[in-house]
């Protein structure tokens, strides 16, 4: 079973950069403790957005995460701090290139 990689791009509401970063950072410990979480990390992007890069052992682990309490808490924490809902992209590796296309 191939790992699943996810990007979630968050655009801060005007003047809410710090609050959004804090809300996202606050979610990290609970998500890292979830079964199947290999990576859950936030990054500042050059365009002002904040990108969450995730890696899960399987689609099932990702689905459990998406339906779990950590995501509910995260959605509550970011409410009012984002310009619009995050843009989420789910990917599976194409096994070519270095390290067989894995992140």
List the helices and strands and how they pair.
Layout: E1 4-10, H1 17-32, E2 37-44, E3 50-56, H2 59-66, H3 69-78, E4 87-92
Antiparallel strand pairs: 1-3, 1-4, 2-3
Plain-language structure description:
The chain has helices at residues 17-32, 59-66, 69-78, and strands spanning 4-10, 37-44, 50-56, 87-92. With 103 residues, the protein is of the alpha+beta class. It has one domain: Alpha-Beta Plaits (2-Layer Sandwich). Strands 2-3-1-4 form a four-stranded antiparallel sheet. A hairpin with a 5-residue loop joins strand 2 (37-44) and strand 3 (50-56). 17% of the residues are buried.
Overview in brief:
The protein is an alpha+beta fold and 103 residues long. It has helices at 17-32, 59-66, 69-78; strands spanning 4-10, 37-44, 50-56, 87-92.
Keywords:
single chain; 103 residues; alpha+beta; Alpha-Beta Plaits; 4-stranded antiparallel β-sheet; globular
H-E order: EHEEHHE
Question: What strand line-up does the widest sheet have?
Answer: 2-3-1-4
Based on CA atoms alone, the radius of gyration comes out at 14 Å
CATH topology term: Alpha-Beta Plaits
How many individual helices? 3
The main pleated sheet reads as: 4 strands, antiparallel
Task: Give average pLDDT, whole number.
Answer: 92
Structure summary, number of beta strands: 4
Quaternary state reads: single chain
Number of domains: 1
Helix/strand structural class: alpha+beta
CATH architecture: 2-Layer Sandwich
Helical residues, percent: 25-40%
Strand proportion:
25-35%
Calculate the terminal CA-CA distance, rounded to whole Å: 15 Å
What general form does the structure show?
Answer: globular
> Residue ranges: pLDDT <50 for 5 or more in a row?
none
The level-1 CATH class: Alpha Beta
């Amino acid at each position: 079973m191939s790992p699943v990689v996810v990007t979630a791009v968050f655009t801060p509401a005007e003047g809410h950069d710090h609050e959004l970063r804090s809300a996202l950072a606050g979610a990290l410990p609970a998500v890292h403790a979830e079964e199947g979480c290999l990576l859950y990390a936030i990054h500042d992007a050059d365009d002002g957005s904040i990108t969450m890069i995730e890696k899960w052992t399987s689609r099932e682990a990702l689905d459990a995460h998406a339906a779990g309490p950590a995501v509910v808490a995260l959605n509550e924490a970011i409410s009012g701090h984002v310009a619009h809902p995050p843009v989420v992209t789910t990917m599976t590796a194409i096994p070519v290139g270095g390290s067989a296309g894995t992140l």
